[in-house]
UniProtKB/TrEMBL annotation:
It comes from the Bacteria. PANTHER family: NAD(P)H-DEPENDENT FMN-CONTAINING OXIDOREDUCTASE YWQN-RELATED. This is FMN-dependent NADPH-azoreductase. Gene3D superfamilies: 3.40.50.360. Residues 2-110 form the NADPH-dependent FMN reductase-like domain. The keyword DNA-binding does not apply. Homotetramer. Keywords: Flavoprotein, FMN. One of its GO terms (molecular function) is oxidoreductase activity. It comes from Staphylococcus carnosus. SUPFAM superfamilies: Flavoproteins. The lineage of its organism: Bacteria, Bacillati, Bacillota, Bacilli, Bacillales.
Length: 188
């Protein structure tokens, strides 16, 4: 199962458009993180507390992520990082690491294929790299890996289609994911 964690403020914006090229003719679960509420993270690492509850929407999303074979993080580049909604979701991983109900969190995350799609309009091939590394290091901390990333250059609506390099890579990913899906179907 493919899960898309979308963090853009425009549901039909350039980052969404690039992701949909990747997802063409595939089954996927699209989660628009901007439609969910995330409470501030509770850092209990040093006071002996254990996380046992979530009063926001995080749990329902992380449960979907943990059932996935592939997860696409999709975000415009906002101030040289992923969107606030995506960052808020990722920050909650700190709680999950302390949650006794997710003792196998790291092991499950390590089994998922993660990919990242970023789109920006201010020299994104250079300025979005710290954002890519942020995601890469966050996943590595969990024993997972960022399989690949795609940085598109676009600003105004529809501009992403002018970035032929990004579109070509998106089409390549589409073929890879279709092949992976076919192999998974044969093993079931």
């Amino acid at each position: 199962m493919i899960t898309v964690l979308f963090g853009g403020s425009r549901p039909e914006g350039n980052s969404a458009e690039l992701a949909k090229i990747v997802l063409k003719d595939l089954d996927y679960n699209w989660i628009d993180l901007t439609k969910y509420h995330f409470d501030p993270v509770r850092d209990v690492r040093h006071n002996g507390e254990v996380i046992t509850d979530y009063t926001d929407d995080y749990k329902q999303i992380i449960d979907q992520v943990l059932k996935s074979d592939t997860v696409l993080f999709v975000s415009p580049v906002y101030w040289y990082s992923v969107s606030a909604s995506m960052k808020a979701f990722i920050d909650h991983w700190s709680e999950t690491l302390r949650d006794k109900n997710y003792k196998d969190f790291k092991e499950k995350m390590a089994q998922i294929e993660f990919r990242l799609i970023l789109v920006g309009g201010d020299c994104p091939k250079i300025k979005a790299r710290p954002c890519m590394h942020q995601m890469e290091y966050s996943l590595e901390f969990l024993g997972a890996a960022l399989k690949d990333y795609l940085i598109g250059n676009a600003n105004a609506p529809g501009d992403i289609l002018k970035d032929t390099y990004a579109v070509n890579i998106a089409e390549k990913w589409n073929a890879e994911l279709k092949s992976k899906e076919e192999k998974l179907q044969k093993t079931k």
